[in-house]
Predict the 3D structure of the following.
Amino acid sequence: MQPGDHLFRHESGRMVAALMRIFGVHNLALAEDVVQDAFCRALEVWRIRGVPENPSAWLMATAKNGALDVLRRQRTARTFAPELGRLLQSEWTLAPVVEELFAANAIKDDLLRMMFSCCHPRLPEAAQVALVLHILCGFSVDEIASAFVTSHAATQKRLTRAKKVLAGSERLFDITALADFSARLPAVHRALYLLFNEGYHGASTERAVRVELCREAMRLTALLLEHPFGTTPVTYALAALMCLGGARLPARVDASGNLISLFDQDRSRWDQELIAEGLKFLELSAAGSELTPYHLEAAIAPIHACARHTEDTDWQTIVSLYDRLTTIRPSPIVALNRAIAVAQTEGPERGLEEIRSITDCDRLAAYPFYSAAVGELELRRGRHDTAREHFRAALALARNPMECRFLDRRLGACERGYTQRAYYE
Amino acid sequence: MSEFTYLYRGGRDTPVSPEQRQKQLQKWAAWFKELGANGHLKELGHPLESAGMVVKGSQKIVTDGPYAEAKDLVGGFSLIEAKDLAHAAEISKGCPILKVGGSVEVRPVMQLNM
């Protein structure tokens, strides 16, 4: 049989999380070694004998034996998880305790505990996301570097620092205390949101990498929804926005790897199942009194999802949702998207006015789709030369070949006097 | 058709990502599948533990071992059918171990009925 997609990657997170619970947060490196050994062994056996019936259980059992081995050999030399203390010292309790900690439902909690531990307040957001990807999603340094378009050295440094902070946190996050859970939850939401966004809007060239980031964010959010403390309206809003956005992923890039703007997407390729799930989550998010940016972003998505064409889209409502988003979390990107929506209802001149009035638009200086949006609106009102200039500026900022090709085509549109609209969502 | 063993040496990987390991595994599966489809696979064979014991001489001295260098250690074997040695060697070129610094030793199984 063939192992399922990303089996190793996902098992890696499960194994590290379970081992950390036993070894203690300060022994992250040791846990990672045991996991490496388990994979090494799996590869050696499976390459010849084939993948066993239940590869996940096989790997877990191997990691468990590896853990017992380490605990027996090093119990005098090392301290392990303080909460387990003497239970690991005696041969009477050692094996049953480890057995229990490797039970399937224990591991689910381990993952959550790890996720919360990674979102440590002393870590910058980017480091939290990198740590989540590394520990819970089994991404190597190189894979993270490629996903975030940073160098190997910079990623390595960021991870080393983050691991140090994590190891210094003395114990893993306690997910059984509601007050602590609720206090850390926003940071976890934010990290998952950033992870999803990196996949959705990020600069990585590889489409597969980006889809995977989105998928990982969705997987971890689903995990959050399985815990009673995690099922809050905000988590539902986050899940909704991921499902509704994720539903459009298949249509965002065509067969030859070209970026397709929302206006030109083949809407029949949107994932209807994910849309339905997103709508269900959106409904569940509408409880309580807290209105978060996730709620608003999630509310914008179905307006697109439910419109058959760009022309059928309720842009008025989109503008008003962007207005509210601007009040609770102002950002130049939100303002830019709002301006584009305004242009849809009130014409390109009004859109350009809105763009010009973005207060901190210098923060968008390196963002290719800022210039591209201006170019698009100029093109729409027939000023082809100005539009061309803006598209050229955008092209100079393009972060990968896919964006280059896309902007090249927009430049081509200027030459042809072609005025099809594009929306860079 | 004659029989051959493939002895897989080395190729114990340096730390790589879980995803890369899984991809490597998929390459092995694909390779064996191809061998099987072409009628070259007599037996999958077995992987071997790296630590064992060596018993030597009339004194029957037992030592831990073999403790060869990782690159020289036989990690497993398979039984192959091919026209001749050259053919068996040719087929072995598809083995994924070659891409990760390992080697395949191709040895004819001695024929009893000459």
In short: Helices of chain B lie at 18-37, 85-92. The radius of gyration of chain B is 16 Å.
